[in-house]
Amino acid sequence: MSWFTDPLQFNFIVRALLAATAVGIVCSVLGAYVVLRGMAFFGDALAHTILPGVVGAYLLGWPLAVGALLMGLLTAVGIGALTERSNLKEDTAIGVLFAGLFALGVAMLSASGNYSIDLAHFLFGNLLGVTTNDLWVIIILGSIVLITIFFFYKEFLVISFDPVLATTLRLPTTFLRYLLLILIAVTIVVALQVVGIALMLAMFVTPAAAASMLTRRLPTLMAIAATIGAFSGIAGLYASFYLNIASGPAVVLVASLIFVLVFLFAPGQGYIWQKL
């Protein structure tokens, strides 16, 4: 067991483990709705559009989470308003904002010096650099996301599976849609330090996609996805420690490997089972 306990003598490893576990759980639980509603492109685009906020906070010496959260909330609300009040389709509006804001963030960063180093940090995360303050931000914001999902579970369930029924029941569908967009923005801030902007989509989609091939019940799907996400965070960090590879990509690679295994061997639905 020394291979498991030896890394724990370092405080930065313990903080990284806690952060990776929390991010894995929060992203995977919310990712269940992202997968069910076909919002993967939105999640990826929103992750990239927060770059100007992150760079702005970095240049001003503010906590990165502040800039990311402000930009994420503005973008989420902006996309919602743009698709509701114009003839643009949602994916078109997302694409326009995605490209423009990400380019703005890169331009801001290129003017600041240390372009390649800073961009790599923002894009791929810095799990081993998680501070105590970062950990508290992850825990507090992650708890807010999970508590909100708990209280609005039934409403999110209805609008995800049957929007017509949601309208018939007179649910506040517009409010719920904006709330879900805001939760995605907050979760992106939670995961920013761990996997970075470029790999954010994997933590939203991959564990939930794997879980969706194992069950059709949403509570079970969320539980399995959260387990996969947490395990990916822990296993990825240990792989990073022993194999000397970047921690964020290592976490995503573990999640991707689990998805491939589920895709091949899921009982009744796996590729191998269907070929037998």
Give the structure's gist in a few sentences.
By secondary structure, the chain is an all-alpha fold. The protein is built from 15 helices and no strands. The protein has a single domain (2-199), classed as ABC transporter involved in vitamin B12 uptake, BtuC, CATH 1.10.3470.
Task: Please characterize this protein's 3D structure.
The protein has 276 residues and is mainly α. The protein has one domain: ABC transporter involved in vitamin B12 uptake, BtuC (Orthogonal Bundle). Helix content is 81%, strand content 0%. The chain is built from 15 helices and no strands. The model has no long low-confidence stretch (mean pLDDT 87).
What are the defining features of this structure?
single chain, 276 residues, mainly alpha, ABC transporter involved in vitamin B12 uptake, BtuC, globular
* Oligomer class: single chain
Elements, N to C (H/E): HHHHHHHHHHHHHHH
**Rg:** 19 Å
Helix coverage percent = over 70%
Provide a count of the helices: 15
- In one word, what is the shape? globular
**Fourth-level CATH superfamily:** ABC transporter involved in vitamin B12 uptake, BtuC
CATH class placement: Mainly Alpha
Largest sheet: none
- Tell me the number of strands: 0
Rounded mean pLDDT is 87
Structural class: mainly alpha
Proper CATH architecture: Orthogonal Bundle
How many structural domains does the protein architecture include?
A: 1
Distance between the termini: 39 Å
CATH fold name, please? ABC transporter involved in vitamin B12 uptake, BtuC
Q: Stretches where pLDDT falls below 50 for ≥5 residues?
A: none
Beta content:
under 5%
